[in-house]
Amino acid sequence: MKTKQDAAMKAKNSSVSTPVTELEYSPTGISDGVHGELCAAPAYGDLAHGPHGTFIKMPAGYVSPTHTHTEDYWAVVVLGVMVNKKPNGSDIPLPAGSYFFQKGGEPHITKCISPNESIFFINQAGKFDYCE
């Protein structure tokens, strides 16, 4: 998922500003089997191949199965209300403006608890993977 922002950043000859209306979301293949699929829009990098910053759109009511990721990541909730917790942890609502850190290899559950979709932005030093 190379973007025009990637080209500008590689050349280091210009800054990049992208309006929300120009984000291009694509399916990720990750679904809870009930509420739909997560979609991703790259800000920089390529989540499938290495370091990246990516917007993730999560459908209303989405609840992931317990899963892990190889790499740590940091996330900021941009829209809606989410939960990111250990499997037996309490739900702590994370409204827009909240952030969380997810340690690589740590089992967790992520969900959207708002009546509409949630969007969060992740920054990850390696590629994104999803291991159930």
Commentary on this structure:
The chain has 132 residues and is mainly β. The chain has a single domain (4-124), classed as Sandwich (Jelly Rolls). Helix content is 6%, strand content 39%. It is built from one helix and nine strands, in the order H-E-E-E-E-E-E-E-E-E. It has one helix at 4-11; strands at 26-31, 37-45, 52-58, 73-79, 81-85, 94-95, 99-102, 109-112, 118-124. It has a six-stranded antiparallel beta sheet with strand order 1-2-3-9-4-7. Strands 6-5-8 form a three-stranded antiparallel beta sheet, with no helix packed on it. A hairpin with a 5-residue loop joins strand 1 (26-31) and strand 2 (37-45). The mean pLDDT is 91.
Q: In the CATH hierarchy, what is the class?
A: Mainly Beta
CATH topology: Jelly Rolls
Give the neighbour order of strands across the main sheet.
1-2-3-9-4-7
What is the number of E strands?
9
Q: Give the distance, in angstroms, between the N- and C-terminal Cα atoms.
A: 24 Å
Radius of gyration: 15 Å
Q: Give the name of the CATH architecture.
A: Sandwich
Fraction of residues in helices? under 10%
Low-confidence stretches: none
Quickly count the domains.
Answer: 1
The rough form would be described as globular
SSE string? HEEEEEEEEE
| Class based on secondary structure composition and strand pairing | mainly beta
Strand content: 35-45%
